[in-house]
Specification:
Layout (H helix, E strand, L loop, with lengths): L12 H25 L3 H4 L15 H15 L15 H18 L5 H26 L2
Helix pairs in contact: 3-4, 3-5, 4-5
């Protein structure tokens, strides 16, 4: 008998590759900017440059990635680092997706094409996964 204790997710490898490529691109952008600007650690976060102690830069991409990670964690796509267990909290996942939708609505017309595309694609992926999980939960 198969173990049906956790949600089954199909993780699109193209999406993972795209996320990794974006992460590397942001990393490369942060290196020259931090070295050339001479900004102090106190002002680095406010300017979107690399933050102190290895923190990611405080920018739009990091904000969206952080919220998407929280939604994925809430959907059970990412295991709890303490227990190693995947637990789905669909209400919390929906809240994170809804918060990203608010960001999309409130920033409409103020984003670069790249930022808009990232946000739209992220929301599409998260909504698709949420619908899949919610449908599975209802059919149990």
């Amino acid at each position: 008998m198969a173990d049906d204790t956790g949600p089954k997710l199909h993780i699109d490898s193209d999406w993972k590759a795209q996320a990794q490529a974006e992460k590397e691109k942001l990393s490369e952008k942060a290196k020259p900017a931090a070295g050339a600007s001479g900004a102090s650690p106190a002002t680095a976060g406010a300017t979107g440059q690399s933050a102190p102690q290895g923190l990611p830069p405080a920018n739009f991409e990091t904000l969206i990635s952080t919220m998407a990670t929280q939604a994925l964690f809430s959907m059970g796509a990412i295991p709890d680092p303490r227990t190693g267990q995947r637990v789905a909290h669909l209400d919390l996942a929906r809240h994170h997706i809804d918060m990203l939708s608010v960001i999309e609505e409130k920033t409409r017309g103020n984003l670069t094409d790249e930022e808009s595309s990232m946000l739209t694609g992220t929301l599409y992926e998260l909504r698709s996964r949420y619908i899949q999980l919610a449908t599975q939960a209802r059919n149990r």
